[in-house]
Every structure is written in structure tokens, then in C-alpha cells.
């Protein structure tokens, strides 16, 4: 597992519906000066159940996380989850490495990217690692990694020079990693959009049903009263 990096910014998950930024701040201000933001779907105003809290120093954020993580603080049967959010600098200077050989080590990978200035890295096994090898493609048998560089300006150089480099017969794939927060927000926004589309579809179906009833000479009001009373 990669080490937890303490920052001054927290990501709060599983917030109850309709919790406001002000209410979130009221629960966190005891740990230090803090700015809070609860994320909503801009088009529909739907609560995405994610909040962000930025403290002055990492120690304040750590105290808040230690005290409130896993607790129900909003009067509902809903425990919140608090994790450290990565800094914007780390998110902008992050690489996603795929198609690494099973033999790769952190030391070897660090040496390969050393000239670009490695701040942090971690290697993960494929999700299919426990499947028998005969049922896996070569890609599924490999490993993948994330590397945070000291300087965002080195991202392009690392991609241009290291992408498709051969390591023990494996052509390494190197690309810039989209920030996790952005991925999560897009996923939740897509879910909210699907909910809106489903609601629109149901309304269309109801309208079509009413039109069909009208063409059959049935009084719509009597029909609805009989079916929805």
C-alpha cells in the first residue's frame, strides 16, 4: 500500500443529502480556520455527497480526520468518511504507468524515472493477479504504478522519453494521470445525468400513455382517478 501523505486538505465522503458548506464548516472550525465546499451538480442542484475542507496547516486537517472519520455528525444514520486530499501540485505532476513486468520493483522504477525528479511512487498488482495465468492476457499479468514528480514541467519529458520503453520484454505505457477528485466528480455527475435522463424517459412514457388513452376516447381524468386513487 502506498503511504498516506498528510496535507492541509480533506475530502469528506458520504455526506447526507442537502448538507451545506456552512454546516460542514460549523463541524470542522473547532480544529482550526477552514474553508469548506460541498460539491453539487450545477445543472440539477443535486447533492453529490462530497465535501472538501482546506485548513491552514496539515496538523489541523489530521486532527479533524482523527476525530471525525467514521462518525455520524449530522444527525442521520450515516457515517462520514474523511481522507486526505492530494495537493493540486501533486495531482498536476502525477504519472500513470501501465504494462510493467511482474518483476518490477520500486527501486528499479525509481531509477528509471530518477532524472525527472521523483517525489513519490507506488506499484500495484493487476486486479486480475489472483486469476490463473492461463486465463489472463499478458497485460493482465503485469503491474501498474503511479509516480508523483517534483516538478509538473517534467511530465511531458517523462511521457515523451519513457512511453513504450522496453522493460524485460514489456513495453511500458506512460501517461498523465487525471486527478482522482476530477475522476470521482465526473463519475458522480454522469450518475446524476443518467438519473435525469431516466426521469425524462418516464415522463415521456406517461405522456405517450395519456395520448393513447385520449385516442381511445377514454376520459383521462377519470382514468387517472381510478388508477391513482
From TrEMBL:
Domain RRM: 8-87, 93-179
MF-aspect GO terms: mRNA binding
Keyword Lipid metabolism: no
Pfam families, sorted: RRM_1 (PF00076)
Keyword check for Chaperone: no
GO cellular component: nucleus
Biased composition (Low complexity): 194-210
Domain of life (superkingdom): Eukaryota
InterPro entries reported in the protein's UniProt record: Euk_RNA-bind_prot, Nucleotide-bd_a/b_plait_sf, RBD_domain_sf, RRM_dom
UniProtKB keywords: RNA-binding
CDD domains (alphabetical): RRM_SF
Annotated stretches, region: Disordered: 186-210
Protein's recorded name: RRM domain-containing protein
Lineage summary: Eukaryota, Metamonada, Preaxostyla, Oxymonadida, Streblomastigidae
